């Protein structure tokens, strides 16, 4: 029984990192709360630019600089949004994989057999907005791996721990 939503088609950005013998089990975007910071900065910048445009104390050169600064903030938010669109967390039959990046693509993976423990944490905002943080501990050769802004954290946690810590002998 699958609890977490799943996409039937793996995006090309993710598919190129899957091994021929792997099957994709879960693929999710990170929670849109990732974008709250960039969007908040753009909205605050827009309010500041509109307020300073209504004040006659600023020269036209100063207003031009203020609006150009807001344009840079808008560009920053657009780049963050494009990056979010290409970022995925993937659980395959063999590994946990994070694919990130817009201009530069990063792929991080850990084999399921190396995972020693897994837990998730939800902040107050995470509970309100519906996201969580996974803390994955591997063997002593691997550092602790933290994955933020995971959607459906309870469902994903149950499904992932079922895959990672499944009974090797189903007849037991």
Write the layout of secondary structure elements.
Blueprint: H1 12-15, E1 24-29, H2 36-54, H3 60-86, E2 88-92, E3 95-100, E4 106-111, E5 115-121, H4 124-129, E6 131-138, E7 145-151, H5 153-164
Antiparallel strand pairs: 1-2, 2-3, 3-4, 5-6, 6-7
Helix pairs in contact: 2-3
Query: Main beta sheet, described?
Result: 4 strands, antiparallel
Instruction: Give the helices and strands as they follow along the chain.
Output: HEHHEEEEHEEH
**Mean of all residue-level pLDDT scores:** 85
CATH topology: PH-domain like
The helix content is: 25-40%
Question: Poorly predicted ranges (pLDDT <50, ≥5 residues)?
Answer: 1-7
Our Rg estimate from Cα atoms comes to 21 Å
In DSSP terms, counting alpha (H) and pi (I) runs of 4 or more, how many helices?
A: 5
Question: How far is it from the N-terminal to the C-terminal residue, by CA?
Answer: 20 Å
Query: Per the principal axes of the C-alpha atoms, what is the gross shape?
Result: elongated
Tell me the name of the CATH homologous superfamily. Pleckstrin-homology domain (PH domain)/Phosphotyrosine-binding domain (PTB)
Q: Strand order within the widest sheet?
A: 1-2-3-4
Strand runs, count? 7
Beta-strand percent range: 25-35%
Total domains: 1
Q: What is the correct CATH architecture?
A: Roll
Broad CATH class: Mainly Beta
Structural class category: alpha+beta
């Amino acid at each position: 029984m699958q609890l977490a939503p799943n996409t039937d088609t793996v995006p090309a950005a993710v598919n190129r990192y899957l091994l021929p013998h792997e099957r994709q089990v879960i693929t999710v975007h990170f929670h849109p709360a990732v974008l709250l910071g960039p969007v908040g900065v753009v909205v605050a910048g827009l309010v500041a630019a509109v307020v300073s445009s209504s004040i006659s104390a600023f020269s036209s050169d100063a207003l031009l600089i203020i609006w150009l600064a807001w344009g840079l903030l808008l560009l920053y938010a657009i780049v963050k949004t494009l990056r979010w669109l290409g970022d995925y967390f993937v659980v395959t039959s063999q590994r946990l994989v994070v694919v990130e990046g817009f201009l530069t693509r990063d792929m991080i993976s850990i084999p399921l057999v190396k995972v020693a423990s897994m837990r998730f944490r939800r902040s107050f905002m995470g509970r309100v907005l519906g996201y969580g943080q996974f803390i994955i501990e591997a063997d002593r050769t691997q550092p602790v791996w933290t994955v933020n802004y995971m959607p459906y954290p309870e469902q994903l946690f149950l499904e992932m721990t079922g895959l990672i810590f499944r009974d090797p002998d189903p007849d037991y």
